[in-house]
Design brief:
339 residues, TIM Barrel, two-stranded antiparallel ribbon, 16 helices, binds zinc ion
């Protein structure tokens, strides 16, 4: 069979077209301390400096062997753009959102006038461009962003889940705003050379909100991003944390090309629960990839591959202390896998 470039291979695999072999790609965060040491671009600077961000993303390819480059490494730049308080990360920890800005519709009005070129969002867009100019012909350029449900939660804070249950008017208004922001941001990424989008919506999990709320508060907003990307021929992958087994059929209705599942999901069951999307996952990022040995990675990878996974990948973001040898083994298992 024809040998594809990594870019063509992922393009085809995500669209269920025949490929020569499985692409070795990670849709969740890829950076580790060992990669930082190898390339000289470190957290936390690599979260806010476009050149360093691109350099560290590149290490996923040059050091680990991943067949794509992906930015950014966290999911707080979006909330930061809208004025949320951020606890800075360090060498090993990602930044986190600690102060929220939207309690009501009035607060929402105040953040509606935003500029995508400002703050870290602007830097991420720059990094996408740097990577695309260097690798765009050969490698998939993956952009990732927080999904509308989790972004609304970041903006609204601790009241979010309570507000869902009491049906506060700020909930649909905020989700609508977040989804439109996601679409505008994703389109800007495409303009800068992104060809595949990972939507990371960790808390829109069946485990937390159940199917009825997912259908009402997550599905239509995630679908808006997917639809906009389809018009631009950009593939989408949706990652949601936790045990999403019983929510997969509804997640599939977003029309995403791939659904990235957590290590708590049984792959064979997951495949049976979807009609359209391919299932991506789900090596345990802590027990196997971080704390395991390459031999243990191999055993776990074989299990996931034998279950028929569409693309072998970590079940969530890679832990920063993960050894390079384990990630290289994951890549090796993917590349050597015979369909
Ligand atoms: Zn996750």
């Amino acid at each position: 069979m024809t040998e594809y470039t990594p870019k063509e291979r992922l393009y085809r695999a995500l669209r269920k077209q025949p490929v020569d072999r499985m692409p070795a790609v990670c849709f969740t965060q890829t950076a580790t301390v060992e990669q930082m040491e190898a390339c000289g671009a470190y957290w936390p600077e690599a979260h806010e400096d476009a050149e360093k961000m691109a350099t560290l993303a590149e290490a996923g390819h040059t050091v680990i062997g991943l067949e794509a480059v992906r930015v950014p490494f966290d999911i707080t730049a979006e909330a930061e753009l809208f004025g949320c308080g951020i606890k800075a990360g360090d060498l090993k920890q990602q930044p986190s959102v600690i102060k929220h800005v939207v309690k009501n519709l009035e607060d929402l009005e105040k953040i509606k006038d935003y500029n995508l070129n400002e703050g870290r969002i602007g830097k991420i867009l720059e990094a996408v461009k740097i990577l695309s100019e260097k690798y765009g012909k050969e490698l998939p350029i993956l952009g990732s962003m927080i999904g509308p449900f989790s972004l609304a939660q970041h903006l609204n804070g601790d009241a979010w889940f309570g507000n869902l249950f009491t049906g506060e008017e700020v909930v649909p208004a905020l989700l609508d705003f977040c989804a439109d922001f996601n679409v505008a941001y994703a389109k800007a990424m495409v303009e800068n050379g992104m060809d595949t989008l990972a939507i990371i919506d960790p808390t829109a999990s069946y485990e937390l909100i159940g199917g009825e709320f997912y259908e009402k508060y997550a599905l239509p907003y995630q679908k808006r991003i997917v639809d906009a990307m389809k018009e631009l021929n950009v593939a989408t992958v949706l990652h949601i944390c936790g045990n999403t087994t019983n929510g997969l059929a509804i997640m599939d209705k977003t029309g995403v090309n791939g659904i990235s599942v957590d290590q708590r999901v049984d792959i064979a069951t997951a495949i049976g629960n979807v009609e359209n999307a391919i299932i991506i996952g789900n090596l345990d990022p802590v027990a196997v990839l971080w704390n395991g040995t390459p031999e243990e990675v191999e055993v776990a990878a074989k299990k996931v591959l034998d279950a028929g996974v569409g693309l072998l990948s970590p079940g969530c973001g890679i832990v920063s202390m993960t050894p390079t040898a384990n990630l290289q083994k994951m890549v090796e298992c993917t590349i050597n896998h015979k369909y």
